[in-house]
Automatic annotation (TrEMBL):
The keyword DNA-binding applies. GO terms for molecular function: DNA-binding transcription factor activity; transcription cis-regulatory region binding. Residues 6-66 form the HTH tetR-type domain. Keywords: DNA-binding. Pfam families: TetR_N. Residues 29-48 bind DNA. SUPFAM superfamilies: Homeodomain-like, Tetracyclin repressor-like, C-terminal domain. This is TetR/AcrR family transcriptional regulator.
Amino acid sequence: MASADGTQADLILKVATQLFAALGYDGTSTRQIADAAGLNIATVNYHVGGKRELYLAVMARAHLAEKAALDAALARLPGDDPVAAIHRLIDDYLGFCVDNPEVPALWMHRWLSDARDITELEREYVQPLVTAVGAALRPTVESGLIDEQADLEYTMWTVIWSVHGFAKGGVLDSDGRRRAAGDRAALRRFRAHLHLSTHRALGLPGDPP
């Protein structure tokens, strides 16, 4: 019975993640989640509680996935090449968001004031990750490789905003068709642009990889 309960809970979280990512917290109802999972509301409430509890569970799961990816990325940074470390982080972050588009979608809804009554998530989840990246890049700052007029914090946020936007919405081609992460040519072009713009924003020496 526990196994069946676990399977239903996982299904509910999966469906809820998809709906919250597509419609936002405010645009999603418990009824929609239950219907999409093929369950009744009572079963959803039994496994995960109400809509708020379900949203918190979804965001917690998304955070754990992102944190695990970041921890792995930081662990394999080249310690002897600060410039390469910056570009490696860009690639790893872009790769995570492309492989897990629901995560940037969830956060982008919050940027648009979705679930505005749930205020603790940025402080609890986002800020520690940004702080960890800043700490990892401190040797680059201390080495003097970054232009003294560059703003590392805002450059980091520019990467976050850009990657989220591309992973969620892509870009329009000359024919007005949307090209997103699933389009390999668009992804390669975006990656190259992101490396070049970050390299220039920080005034790093040499050419970006």
